[in-house]
Amino acid sequence: xxxxxVVLDRLGFYQLKNRFLVNFQRNPIVMILLLCxxxxxxxxxxxxxxxxxxxxxxxxxxxxxxxxxxxxILLFIALGIGLMSSLTNAIAHFYLSRDLEFQFSLPVxxxxxxxxxxxxxxxxxxxxxxxxxxxxxxxxxxxSGNNMLVCLLGVGVLAxxxxxxxxxxxxxxxxxxxxxxxxxxxQVFLVATVIMVASLVFLFxxxxxxxxxxxxxxxxxxxxIDLVSLDSxxxxxxxxxxxxxxxxxxxxxxxxxxxxxxxGGAFVGTVGFxxxxxxxxxxxxxxxxxxxxxxxxxxxxxxxxxxxxxxxLQYPRWSQEAREVLLFLRDPSQWxxxxxxxxxxxxxxxxxxxxxxxxxxxxMYNLALxxxxxxxxxxxxxxxxxxxxxxxxxxxxxxxxxxxxxxxxHFVRGKLLVYGVPTLIFALVxxxxxxxxxxxTGEQLLYLGIGVVWDTAFMxxxxxxxGMLFINPGIDNPLKMIVSxxxxxxxAVGLFVTLLHVILRLTSNSPEINLLLSYMTWWPDLxxxxxxxxxxxxxxxxxLGLVWLCRQGLTHLRIGDF
Amino acid sequence: xxxxxxxxxxxxxxxxVNGLTLxxxxxxxxxxxxxxxxGKTTTIRMLTGILEPDEGSLLVFGKTYRKNRxxxxxxxxxxxxxxxxxxxxxxxxxLRFLGSLRKIQGAEVQRRAMDLLDQFNLADxxxxxxxxxxxxxxxxxxxxSALLHDPDLLIVDEPMVGLDPRAxxxxxxxxxxxxxxxxxxxxxxxxxxxxxxLCHQVGIIHKGKLVADESIPNLTKRIEAxxxxxxAVFMALTKDLERDQDREVVPF
Lengths: 562, 252
Hints:
The complex is a heterodimer of chains A (562) and B (252).
Chain A: H1 2-26, H2 28-58, H3 63-96, H4 100-104, H5 110-143, H6 148-179, H7 182-206, H8 217-227, H9 237-249, H10 253-284, H11 286-293, H12 308-312, H13 319-329, H14 332-353, H15 364-393, H16 398-402, H17 408-437, H18 442-469, H19 485-509, H20 511-520, H21 531-559
Helix pairs in contact in A: 1-2, 1-5, 2-3, 2-5, 2-19, 3-5, 3-6, 3-7, 3-9, 5-6, 6-9, 6-10, 7-14, 9-10, 13-17, 15-17, 15-18, 15-19, 17-18, 18-19, 18-21, 19-20
Chain B: E1 2-11, E2 14-24, E3 29-33, H1 40-47, E4 55-60, H2 65-74, E5 76-79, H3 91-101, H4 106-119, H5 135-147, E6 153-157, H6 165-180, E7 184-188, H7 192-198, E8 201-206, E9 209-215, H8 216-225, H9 230-237, H10 241-248
Parallel strand pairs in B: 3-7, 3-8, 5-6, 6-7
Antiparallel strand pairs in B: 1-2, 1-4, 8-9
Helix pairs in contact in B: 3-4
């Protein structure tokens, strides 16, 4: 059994290693840059975590209690996130994975196979949680005065806790697939997860976290934390884990042993139950897995013979655009993205109505300029999700474009008009609408609008260029492109340029911010119209860079081997 | 119709096509044979404008892709070995779309599309999403799309893969009829029997080089010298394959 498990896991490991090495061989400089950037971001996160926890620990009387409570809440949230994430991952790995047919034909022990798939779901659902949550717990225990071994044990507690939602999701999926088609269950879970995430973000926004900054903020934060009472949920693994961590932090070893036994026992019992029950459940729903591979359970659409868009396909001028829209509307996997979009829209408008009138001593115009950075982040996400992935979304059918005389420019124009222009309009409407709610003057709105068009156009063309250059028609799910080398590059460059734009706008408008930045950093003095030289140079560099990038992309589309 | 002179195409350290020279005259069916990894698909991808050669000259209808891309593609039909299509379009929509790219519009594209779908027994499924089609149905739809604009040259990669015997017979007749109209077919295949039945001329590629370029009468003589077996001729020409294939695997 162990041998089979190791063989199966090794297969996955090799695939991961090869994917990394192939990316590295293709774009070594980009990969090194991205790794450095990722390392810098992670280092920043660790530093911030240390600062935050040290600040909380230092609070008189309630510091330690507050930190423990915070850990309890974080573990509770981690359990929820893990559950949502593993629900979709479990169904994808147990029923929708393309290699199922191949792996079913292998002479491996079923328990090994179940454990192997379970581990895959576990890693896919929790890697980010472990990457960011693990060090946070380590820092918590370290600041409590514990040695490395205890800190390591604390990280192990998080790892064990993260297994519970995966076990629950696996069994739930297996039970549901016995009754409903796998694909339908997956789609329902996907939409439910998106709605849940959106609700959580709304909940966070409803707390108005800006009130925790400044004088009295810590007291208000403590007030909120005290309101959350999770101690009554003694059946909840998150409570067992937080009790264990609290005992470890206070060096109450007997208590720690008791809670550790509780958590460990439950962990072993649940894994055993999964193997026993999962074996039976999965065997009886085995056929479902194979049926789902052939498209069973897909939402079937009624196709109108002569719809407006269908007729549009025959007009040479607009056929590419008509095709893009038709393919988008007929793909149910795109619909969940619309939920995300609507949630972001709602969140943004809600935030605008809650804006303070005198933010940190600045003006509403400053706030509007800062807010344009927030919208730019949303636009970047949209450009990444829709514009960048749109080239790979054509999939293997891209040969049709390569062997027809229409020309790539028209093809790219289709992507730009169907995905890029709506992104631009979305960003512009959001900014101007919020600007009007903030009672900005006409001149300020114009200035803001020009800035937003510049930000978003940069992102859209960057996504177009990188989408062409990093096109991968062979990928099974184009959404995976977002976490490819090109996707990371888009995010890194997009965020950097957005930040630069926003700071330039703020420093040119606000003498206070200009002074602060010039005083604290190497940032130049941009008052009295000097900013226009910087804006002009930056615009020129960006425009030339984008023209070069898009030309490279077009050449790659035309003669590249993909 | 097609003329290649010393065409070279490499992928990093691997030379896929190495100084390929061949000529396909109008009105002929040219069979392009070779073992796996010999460079057949790379050659076809260059002939259809998907890839550019690194060296040498490649002329289709006496023109180069660099200067006359649209002219060439307007007169060329291509059928790849695997029928990847836009699954979320219907067959009729796909043909409309491909027609529009070649400036065939309105009633004309509708008429041609219906004729072709009818010819390939797909008329009843014209308004169904392609993702629900079987492999064979998709293969037939690709053939229909390649013929939509009445091309002068048809480039086909493995035409019989996935087709049932009836459809395979239909495709063979179609290819012969196409050639009888004075048009040309460039066909890659692994099926030696198909090549012997359909082709006027056969080229065998091995390690990126053309090792045989024979008319069918010449090939028949060779076959007779090898106890009437085309397979024996093929094996003799590509006998060092296994050893070389081991060497050609690109190390990771």
